[in-house]
Amino acid sequence: MPFCPECRYEYTAGSTRCPDCDTDLVEALPHDKPVSGLRFVPLPGLPGRVYAEMVREVLDQEGIPCYLRSDGLIDSYGISGTGPANRGVRIFVPEDALEEAVRIQRQMMDHI
Ligand SMILES: [Zn+2]
Prior knowledge:
Helix content is 23%, strand content 15%. With 112 residues, the protein is an alpha+beta fold. The protein has two domains: 1-30, no CATH class; 40-110, Alpha-Beta Plaits, CATH 3.30.70. Helix 1 (49-61) crosses helix 2. The protein starts with 16 loop residues before the first strand and ends with a helix. The structure holds zinc ion (ZN).
């Protein structure tokens, strides 16, 4: 079935154009976020989850993709504060952004 790459609406066979977007239909939708080729590496350890969340926020603002992972634990968003989830939190960033991310993290830690 053809799809509109803009609004992702699925059209019946034989359609070639999305009237809403004025865009040519494609046979298959591209993947949401091609992440192949990106290798994620951990930043140096942080004292706790609260700090990790703060650093992540700044990295987001700087346009550096990142995610948090607790060492050996399933990441549980919404649960903060005490408990084992507060320990061993690592921020993962793409390898080619590591230097920049470390610099940002250091800067932030200096101000706390
Ligand atoms: Zn469309």
